[in-house]
Design brief:
The protein is α/β, with parallel strands linked by helices and 250 residues long. The protein is 36% helix and 20% strand.
Length: 250
């Protein structure tokens, strides 16, 4: 199972599945080191890489605990630490964000940035549009097992012309009917309305917000909260595929 020493390191690949296969009776350090040795590292190199990457993913205090005692989030971090420790040119990561806490997500984002800066490529599946928009160079929308569209995050948003949304919440049953408030401010249009919320699409929230609030308050109701949401890849996914992103809107 050792890598052929004549194989160019730049061609190495690493697959991290959504169900990490761990030897539960071995420690996290031993699991990582064994897999790195199988990938071609020498024993000392494998142990050093395992220690370094376990530390980066916050597992150093638990490195000698049996992997069977790890939580699902710790197992995910162990799998990712091992993947990055392999120094593979191409990483294939299946749902790498699943089970990660905020610290784990930050560690993963930092590792991903370092991998890219070193000339590596990572292909990952995820259901988090904000993470993909912030950290991925290209995004593909998969529908029914096929690629519906692929482009950079910026161009995907440009293609659908998505605009920022201002969500204004009122006490239950008190949202005003925009049609009764007179002409709306320039570049403001109603996107949705229910008994307690009015959602408006605006071109420039900072410029339009004061005038928009004054317009809405003509209805004589009190505003509970105001939330400004920039367009994201969930909006682009819905517009370009006709589907809601899994989990969106729930």
């Amino acid at each position: 199972m050792r890598r052929d020493p004549d194989v160019d390191d730049a061609g190495r690949r690493w697959l991290a599945t959504d169900q990490p296969a761990l030897r539960t009776w071995l420690s996290g350090r031993e699991n990582a080191a064994i897999l790195l040795e199988l990938h071609g590292a020498g024993p000392g190199e494998a142990r050093a890489a395992a220690d370094a990457w376990l530390a980066r993913f916050g597992l150093a205090p638990d490195a000698d605990r049996p992997a069977g005692a790890y939580s699902s989030g710790m197992r995910r971090r162990l799998a990712l630490a091992t993947a990055f420790g392999a120094a593979a040119r191409l990483l294939l990561l299946d749902e790498p964000l699943a089970g990660l806490d905020p610290g784990g997500r930050t560690a993963f984002a930092d590792a991903l940035a370092d991998h890219r800066a070193a000339g590596g490529t990572a292909v990952l599946s995820a259901h988090d549009p904000a993470f993909a928009q912030a950290h991925c160079d290209r995004v593909a929308f998969i529908v029914d097992g096929r690629c519906a569209v692929a482009d950079t995050p910026a161009r995907l948003l440009e293609r659908v012309g998505a605009r920022p949304r201002v969500e204004i919440r009122f006490a239950a049953g008190q949202s005003p009917d925009p049609d009764t408030l007179g002409p709306a401010p320039e570049d403001v249009r109603t996107s949705a309305r229910d008994e307690s919320t009015v959602t408006l699409e605006v071109e420039d929230p900072r410029r339009a917000l004061p005038e928009t609030l004054a317009w809405v308050l003509r209805g004589g109701t009190s505003v509970v909260s105001v939330d400004v949401r920039e367009p994201d890849l969930a909006d682009a996914f819905a517009a370009l595929t006709g589907r809601l992103l899994e989990g969106d809107g729930e």
